[in-house]
Specification:
This protein is mainly β. About 10% of the residues lie in helices and about 50% in strands. The strands form 2 sheets. An 8-stranded antiparallel β-barrel has the order 1-2-3-4-5-6-7-8. Strands 9-10-11-12-13-14-15-16 form an 8-stranded antiparallel barrel. β4 and β5 form a beta hairpin. The longest helix has 13 residues. The chain is flat and about 70 Å long.
Length: about 375
């Protein structure tokens, strides 16, 4: 009897809270047809820019109302899933079918929406040395992709139906997993509708609470990254690489931390590329014994969301025995914390707009 009484008491006590949690769940869907142009970010894709691509972005969104602290810190963003169909309107480039996880941030009294969506895409007509040798943009069917939307966004204009319009940027690349990989960037105008599945029912946002100044001591990080990539020389093959990183970070608030550290790169593709250069272009005086390892120092920034963060880093090679794409490099990625100290990450390392590799990593922060 005491157990029954306890259960009844608990259920009664939390009944209002349960109703509030039910009311706090709200979902929307939106559809945005788009029409745009492929940007000429590299002269080698000029022959592929012949028509204007079009397609549609379909999205399912979960609204947030401040139940968690990070939702209030980022002005109640949306989280959701997207599907993108894009017809490049070029028989060489084919079509794309992509799935994405996205975050939508709001500004200007929630009338301006910025959406960021990383994902993967399937291309219907990648490079083939016999049947599609002109496609130097896509070396594989499965590609990493990311899209950005900056839209005027107005929900619930009439019975849950709203409108959105603005610009989208859609990027496709395989991160030099397999050459060729010149990649494409599509800048497009989009316009469409958004529908609130609750019919426009209003839900109040949980008020932001002023907290004490965020404080955290300097933290130290070690990370091991690895993957497979190739050089730009078609037919040279794919090789594993490894990166050992050590860096310090200092949080300067709830959202941001700055990085300073070093990377050591062991890239087998570069070893083979050096050997290729020494044999094929003797006039360049490249020795086959030239060291392929590189050491860099970098500064960076980490944007903390919840257990997910976005990292950006800019580096400079201090040990650089062979010239490949210049001394400067950059890294952009996502980091997921698996507890207080362990993290996993997925990053893209590039030299300006030229991708070198997708890196999969694990690390410790202590």
């Amino acid at each position: 009897m005491r157990l029954v009484f306890f259960l009844v008491t608990v259920l009664s006590f939390f009944s209002c809270l349960s109703q509030e949690e039910k009311l706090a769940k709200k979902y929307t869907i939106d559809a945005s047809p788009f029409y745009g142009s492929v940007l000429r970010h590299n002269p080698s894709i000029s022959h592929l820019i012949t028509n204007h691509p079009d397609g549609v972005i379909l999205s399912f969104n979960k609204k947030t109302f401040g139940q968690e602290e990070w939702e209030r810190a980022y002005n109640y963003p949306d989280v959701g899933y997207s599907f993108i169909y894009q017809n490049m309107n070029n028989s060489t480039l084919g079509e794309h079918y992509g799935v994405f996880l996205h975050y939508s941030l709001y500004y200007l009294k929630r009338n301006l929406q910025l959406r960021i969506g990383p994902g993967i895409s399937y291309n219907t007509n990648p490079y083939d040395k016999e049947t599609n040798f002109r496609n130097n943009a896509y070396g594989t069917s499965i590609m990493a992709s990311v899209y950005f939307m900056l839209n005027y966004h107005k929900e619930n204009i009439y019975k849950g139906l709203g409108f959105k319009a603005g610009l989208s940027l859609i990027h496709y690349s395989n991160g030099s997993f397999k050459s060729p990989n010149t990649s494409t960037n599509t800048l497009a105008f989009n316009a469409g509708f958004v529908y609130d599945l609750s019919g426009g029912k209003e839900i109040p946002y949980k008020e932001k609470v002023t907290k004490l100044k965020f404080k955290e001591s300097v933290k130290y990080n070690v990370a091991l990254r690895a993957g497979i990539n190739s050089s730009d020389v078609e037919g040279m093959g794919q090789y594993p690489f490894y990166v050992v990183s050590a860096y310090a970070d200092k949080r300067i608030g709830r959202k941001s931390a700055f990085h300073f550290g070093t990377d050591i790169f062991f890239s087998r593709f570069l070893k083979e590329y050096i050997r290729f250069q020494s044999i094929s272009f003797p006039e360049n005086n490249v020795s086959a014994d030239t060291d392929y390892k590189r050491v860099g120092v970098f500064v960076g920034h980490e944007l903390f969301i919840n257990k997910l963060s976005v990292t950006t880093q800019l580096g400079y090679y201090v040990y650089y025995p062979f010239d490949f794409e210049g001394r400067m490099y950059n890294r952009l990625g996502l980091k997921r914390y698996l507890g207080d100290k362990v993290f996993a990450e997925f990053t893209l390392k590039s030299h300006a707009a030229n991708a070198e590799a997708f890196e999969f990593g694990v690390g410790l922060r202590f």
